[in-house]
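User: Hey, my collaborator sent me this sequence without any context and asked if I could get a structure. I don't really work with proteins. Can you help?
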Amino acid sequence: MNPMKFLHELFPLKKGYLEFRLIHKSGRIKQIFVLTGSDYRQVLREVKRYNEQGYNAYFGTATRSRKSGTASDVLYTNCLWVDIDGPRTWLNKYHPPPSIVVNSGHGYQVFWLLEDIIFLTNPKMCAILTTKLKKLCAAVHGDMAATDVARVLRVPGTINWNKKNYGHGLEKKD
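Assistant: No problem. I've predicted the 3D structure and written it out in C-alpha cell form, which is a compact way to encode the shape of the chain:
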C-alpha cells in the first residue's frame, strides 16, 4: 500500500481537513491543511520536500473541522490507532489483527479501520474514543501518550529525524 492509498483508507469522506504537521529539528513548526478526499499527490510531494529538509512529518489521525490541530476541532475518524515504540510482539497476540501497520522508523503505528465512522463533534464522543484508545493501547503495550483525539502520527515512508531512521513499511492486512 502506498501513502496515497493509506490516506484514502483512513479518510473516506470528503468532509473536513486533513492536517499535516511538520516539525523541524530546530523546533520550527509548519502546518498544512488539505480537504479530505482530495488527490493527495501534491501535498505528499510538499511533505516529502519538507521532510528531506530535516522536518519530521506527521498527519492528524482524525479530520479537522477547520484549519486547526486542537482537540476541539476534530471532526471524525475512521480508525482506532496505537503507537508502539519498539518491537510489536504483543501485537501478534491481539485479536482482531490490525488493518494497517506502519513502520515509523522507531516502532510501529497500528490502525484498525472501522466499519462505521465516529463523528467527534461533541465532548462525549471524544471521551468515548479516548477511552477505547487507552484500552486498546494498554492491551498491546502501546504509548499511552498517543491516545488523544487530536493525535498526529508519522507520515508513512518519511524519515524519522529523531532517530535518523527511515520509516519504510506500510502493510495492509486483509
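In plain terms: Residues 24 and 159 are 12 Å apart (CA to CA). You can pass these C-alpha cells on to your collaborator as they are.
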